[in-house]
Specification:
Elements: E1 6-17, E2 31-41, E3 46-52, H1 57-72, H2 80-90, H3 92-95, H4 99-119, H5 123-126, E4 133-139, H6 147-159, E5 164-168, H7 171-174, H8 177-191, E6 196-200, H9 207-217, E7 222-226, H10 234-243, E8 248-250, H11 256-265, E9 271-272, H12 276-279, H13 281-294, E10 298-299, H14 305-314, E11 321-324, H15 328-334, E12 345-347, H16 360-367
Parallel strand pairs: 4-5, 4-11, 5-6, 6-7, 7-8, 8-9, 9-10
Antiparallel strand pairs: 1-2, 2-3, 4-12
Helix pairs in contact: 1-4, 6-8, 8-9, 9-10, 11-13
Length: 369
């Protein structure tokens, strides 16, 4: 199997309309979905990878078809380092961040899936991990919810066995921090003192406001505060860290190890949340994981738990996965029998590669839309 050759790449856009009123501090969520990549080989093996299809999925699909696929035909999926470097420089004028890098990320993940399948190994074991059980926290709590709805969802998460939950702050576009304080207090009272409690502001505040808010809610034992300021405002993130002792989580909007390096050098992160479906796939994420270990920071990737479970299981500093409840429907549609968390633990299947199988009936439906 080591002489596998890539013969083609298929991309399918799968999406669903959001059912309910989902809005965070800066954005209304209308549709969610995946751009699903299927890399075929001359020996019948297929590798799958995924990135987001919310805004710009059509551009991702076309970029893979016209820019990336021609560079892959005839190459071996084991060439992940060489292929990454070639494609990085090929698309560097348009692709160091954004949709082009999302596109390459999905393809790279599919190559790693192929490597695991060719070797007959789950990726977490191929990467050096031994424990298939990975902690995972529940994530939701939209700012568009009333306080009663927020509390009800938090209780639901705990009732499902999650030991840690994350909710959003920044109501009214971030213009009413005092109401956020009241909502945080209500949730903490409802879930009790023993449940891990994290917050996500989705980039809404300037550093001074974020620091004021953080210091008002520190009594509620917040495990981390995510993106209190705009993700690209590295000085603002650093200012936040200086102004409060609540750990700072960020990184989901970074692309490549260079952005991550700058977060570390500027003392602008405690818990790193990079997303393999954006930063360059497993190839770049492994470099980022090494950086996070060198700077002695926790690694807790953003969303996409089925793409990230192998990485967290293999990382000495991997702390947990994130389950975004809003993706439940599309996850259950795209995959056949994908693992689900039980009592806050995701158990990785002992199957080669990612250990995932596409629901081809659903994929065919997506193609026909």
């Amino acid at each position: 199997m080591n002489d596998l050759k890539i013969t083609g790449i298929d991309v399918t856009l799968c999406e669903t309309r959001v059912k309910g009123n989902f809005a965070d501090s800066t954005r209304n969520v209308e549709t969610i979905g995946f751009a699903v990549v299927d890399v075929s080989t001359d020996q019948g093996l297929h590798g799958i990878g995924v990135t987001y299809h919310e805004v710009g999925g059509e551009a991702i699909r076309d970029f893979i078809k016209y820019a990336i696929e021609p560079k892959m035909i005839g190459r071996s999926p084991f060439e992940t380092e060489v292929l990454y470097e070639e494609n990085f420089h090929y698309m560097r004028g348009v692709g160091r961040k954004g949709l082009a890098f999302c596109a390459y990320s999905a393809v790279d993940i599919a190559l790693w899936d192929l490597k695991g399948k060719a070797l007959g190994m789950p990726l977490f074991r191929l990467l050096g991990g031994t424990n298939p059980e990975v902690p995972i926290y529940a994530s939701g709590g939209w700012t568009s919810y009333s306080t009663e709805e927020l509390v009800a969802e938090a209780k639901m998460m705990v009732s499902k066995g999650y030991k840690k939950i994350k909710l959003k702050v920044g109501v009214e576009g971030g213009n009413n921090p005092d109401e956020d304080v009241r909502r945080v207090a209500a949730v903490r009272e409802a879930i009790g003192p023993d449940i891990g409690f994290m917050l996500d502001a989705n980039n809404v505040w300037r550093a001074a406001t974020a620091i004021q808010f953080a210091n008002k809610i520190r009594e509620y034992n917040i495990e981390f505060f995510e993106e209190p300021v705009f993700a690209d405002d590295i000085p603002g993130l650093a200012e936040f860290k200086r102004g409060t002792d609540i750990p700072l989580a960020t990184g989901e909007h970074e692309y490549t190890r260079y952005g991550v390096r700058d977060l570390f050098l500027n003392h602008a992160v405690d818990i790193l949340q990079c997303d393999a479906t954006r930063v360059g796939g497993y190839t770049e994420m492994l470099r980022i994981m090494a950086l996070s270990q060198a700077f002695n920071k926790a690694f807790a990737p953003h969303g996409m738990e089925h793409m990230h479970m192998h990485l967290v299981a293999a990382a000495p500093n991997g702390v947990y996965l994130e389950k975004l409840f809003m993706f439940d429907e599309v996850v259950k549609s795209v995959y056949l029998n994908a693992p689900e968390p039980v009592n806050g633990i995701m158990t990785i299947p002992e199957k080669p590669g990612l250990g995932l199988e596409l629901n081809m009936d659903y994929i065919k439906e997506c193609k026909g839309r």
